[in-house]
Amino acid sequence: MYWPYADPSVFLTPESLHHWHKEFWDHDLHWCLVAVGALELDFRFSILQPITGYRHFSCGISKHKQVTGRVHRDVQRYIIGLIAGTAPHRFVTAIRALMDVRYMAQSPSPDDNLLTSIDRSLLVFHQNKDVIMTLGARMGTKKPINNWFIPKLELMQSITASTRKVGALIQWSADATEHAHISEIKDPARHTNNNDYNPQICRHLDRLEKLRHFEIATTLKSHVVDPGTETEDEGGEEEGTACDEEEPTDPRTALLEELNCTRVTTNYFNRAKDITALSHQACPGPPRTFTTGNVAIHLNFNPTRTGMKLDDVSDNFNLPDLHHALSAFLQRDTRNGNMTHGVGVPRRSLIDRPPILPFDRVQVWHTVRLQQVSYHDSSVALPAQTLHASPSSPEWLKGRRDAVLVNIDGQYEWPQSGLKGHTVCELQLIMRPMPRRGSRIGWRDQYLCYVHNMKIGAVDPVTGMHVVKRAKHANGSPVGDIVPLRQVRSFINLIPQFGAAADARLMKATSSHYSSSFFLNKYFDKQIYDTLYYASQG
């Protein structure tokens, strides 16, 4: 009577770290290394453009042995886009089906439609898994394995049944306990003489705690400021105004950051609210931190370059049509007011008549930070993502530019609308026009960005990702345009389509520049995956 409940797939609740991510590392990744080749896959990982805040595998991934769950997830971000084009279609479909299962199973709010999609993806894997055997990718230590006796894969079949019984499975993740095992057991054990572990580990932890208490006390003491002491404001353009200054950090946050006890996520939404509350004061320009839709945008108080001539900007950033783009933008903005600007809008050609601009210098930023709220809980602010728009340098021969999602239709809002009403662009320049000396601003004072437009194509049936291509004019030049920075909605990770074999001349600093066709990587993080999944479900 009770024998059916003795089945491990019934009484063992699926756990993401050991059951899903470890299954990927132990099996899926090994299949990919055999099907694609270790040298080719390592090279593809090494030439991906680095992303601030995320691990870059400059030496590939095949030589890694002892790795953490974070590395498992970092490899999962890119693997589907990298094996596409060189591995057989059915092989990519099988690997992608299991990847979809992992991402959907981590949803904090699963519903019946999601569980049905999980079962459908598992079925797709089983329909295509024979190609893994055919390629000889399921290898043992010395010879191929001709069976599917994989306990972790078996446990994935019970995801939907367990979810219906115990709710969202992500709540049972062992990440927290595994991290504690490293910090409280493994790391202290390395400081022992490999004898009598227990007392030595306890003594080590006790001493660490005393040192931490002492450091907290001295840090708090050093942060005490005499309330009668006044700090002098440094002179300079646009400085000393409350609405632009960095908000003071509370003692607890400052202490956590200094001691590096935990990762503190700066909430730019709260900072923008505080700045808005000071809007009655006279501000010399638009605030550096502001919100637009479900996104908070933050620029450094000091620009990377200030007072830079437009001609120099055009040359340094290789934007020959910058003047014409600015002129066309100002005309549209003046004529239509607070409109949502499109990208790639046809411009009225001016024969033998150069554009006349009311300014000739701009402030330039090479980075900007974007912060979103969680798709499932708008009260949770996600960590901010740094975006780059910098010119060529010795390290970045063709410049460093990240892809972004730009809103082009005010009726739609990210992330609820998905890609509808948005387009993908490559961020080329972030700037703010400066009035000529002695003159007043005669245009709407705002932050602008020059972008290169990209066309979002249909979903590739093999990878399940949108194909994105660079938009070009008839003469082959890229389609560029000016849009307000407030229309930028999200960072977008693009994986170049390398084809059957990646060009050996590519490097991490040039792979994106020399590619014209990309995959819109929906597996980059769970935020973008969930957004596109629910948008596809209507």
Q: What can you tell me about this protein's structure?
A:
The chain has 538 residues and is α+β, with helices and mostly antiparallel strands. It contains 16 helices and 15 strands. Strands 3, 4, 8, 9, 10, 11, 12, 13, 14 and 15 form a ten-stranded antiparallel beta sheet that branches. A five-stranded antiparallel beta sheet has the order 1-2-5-6-7, covered by helices on one side. A hairpin with a 2-residue loop joins strand 1 and strand 2. About 3% of the residues have low confidence.
- Strand segment count: 15
Largest sheet: 10 strands, antiparallel
Mean pLDDT: 88
Residue share in helix: 25-40%
Poorly predicted runs: 225-242
- Taking all Cα atoms into account, the compactness measure Rg is 27 Å
Which strand-content bin applies to the residues?
A: 15-25%
Gross geometry:
globular
Determine the structural class based on helices, strands and strand pairing. alpha+beta
End-to-end CA span: 43 Å
Count of helical segments?
Answer: 16
